[in-house]
Design brief:
This protein is mainly alpha-helical. The protein contains 7 helices and 5 strands; from the N terminus they run H-H-E-E-H-H-H-H-E-E-H-E. The protein has 2 domains: about 120 residues, Hypothetical protein, domain 2 (Endonuclease III, domain 1, Orthogonal Bundle), CATH 1.10.340.30; about 55 residues, no CATH class.
Length: about 190
């Protein structure tokens, strides 16, 4: 589900990295309650908006660490807010279907998982966001719970892209397989 702005999506995805879901929810709640603007309604409790990049920069990194309790993510959120306000970077332009979203990787804290998650949010479904919870599920269901080490992963190519068997297991967990063409297994280390 998309947020009203890509900035909000980016920050929320950053807040999902290297943490548990409950902590993500707490960080988002602290951010909105601390920096969001109140919306007039007849309901209680009070509703607030997600903070703007300007408001995040105004509050600063120390506020994010001490009051929102985002830890090391504070640097990433400040960087995302700076990029969101940079007319050359033009963060919101990446919501266009024809945009080259690989530029999102220039935002600090956007690694493979976060980039793949943002890709899916933006309607590009060719990459899988793999977090630790889903990885544990696939290992339990498809690899008999045995821990995987890189040497035990089979390397494959699908549509010319090199992937490993963990990704293949994940692809087959969907109702309709993501594979649209045959793939071939490669020997370990082959290209």
């Amino acid at each position: 589900m998309r947020s009203p702005t890509l900035f909000e999506d980016v920050v929320k995805v950053i807040l999902t990295t290297n943490t548990r879901w409950k902590q993500t929810m707490n960080m988002v709640s602290n951010l909105v309650n601390g920096l969001g603007e109140s919306i007039e309604t007849n309901h209680q409790p009070e509703f607030k908006t997600f903070p703007t990049p300007e408001r995040v920069l105004e509050a600063g990194e120390l506020y994010l660490k001490e009051h929102v309790r985002v830890g090391h993510r504070s640097t990433y959120i400040i960087n995302a807010a700076t990029k969101a306000l940079d007319p050359v970077f033009d963060l919101e332009s990446y919501t266009s279907p024809e945009s080259d979203i690989t530029k999102l990787k220039e935002i600090k804290g956007i690694g493979p998982y976060a980039f793949n998650t943002l890709s899916m949010i933006l309607g590009k479904y060719d990459l899988l966001p793999i977090d630790s919870e889903y990885k544990a599920h696939v290992i339990k269901k498809y690899f008999n719970g045995e821990p995987l080490i890189s040497k035990s992963l089979k390397v494959c190519t699908i549509n010319g892209e090199v992937i490993n068997s963990l990704h293949i297991g994940m692809m087959f967990t969907r109702q309709q397989p993501l594979l649209t063409s045959p793939y071939r297994l490669l020997e370990e280390g082959a290209s």
